């Protein structure tokens, strides 16, 4: 078909075609204008831009509440990832700042409210350190990994932190870790990498305790002249086994003479001595009683 024929076809009955187009446009515009306007609230993580790798902002909230408004069709299909609250600190001079939060949104959506809408904070040097890990569980001893994590955040807070601790209560395999100071108080504002510990094995909790030692006397026919033995022995075992344990009976290998010999300890089930216990003895034959 030649260009002349195409043009003639397009211009054929053009007033009716133009009128149809205008009617369709007016209907679309009217429907668009009459579409209900709705609000929607998002809770989004605050983004900080404009800081170098060696500085960090302190005193900022982790999340921001943003209420937006628009037509129902746009708002209901709006992805949370399209709502980006951020604060630009690239022009901040000095250690403190007072900045308004800005919101990045798609076209056709407007911001109604931001909570908080203004930020007051300070900028500090970024610190980094390795922290030992401790995971606790009531009445249970745990083997876990890793043994240390990397902490990053404001240098002042990094210097306060002495350990990353976790508490296992319900048999979970992954335990969240938190930085703490020397008094056991949480240290906030630090990012731990990794931020969890994995429990690899569980065993009954064992405690250590020093218990008095009681030496059993020699049998009839022998007389103990001198004995040098420890007054107490360190034992390890479950708390319930050591509760109420007043003394540990000990037996020696009795014979005539002066000698050094190990002691046989009578320990409750599940309890063990911290090491071998020895004694020095001088034993004589007892004179028969007439």
UniProtKB/TrEMBL annotation:
<protein>
    <submittedName>
        <fullName>YbbR family protein</fullName>
    </submittedName>
</protein>
<dbReference type="InterPro" id="IPR053154">
    <property type="entry name" value="c-di-AMP_regulator"/>
</dbReference>
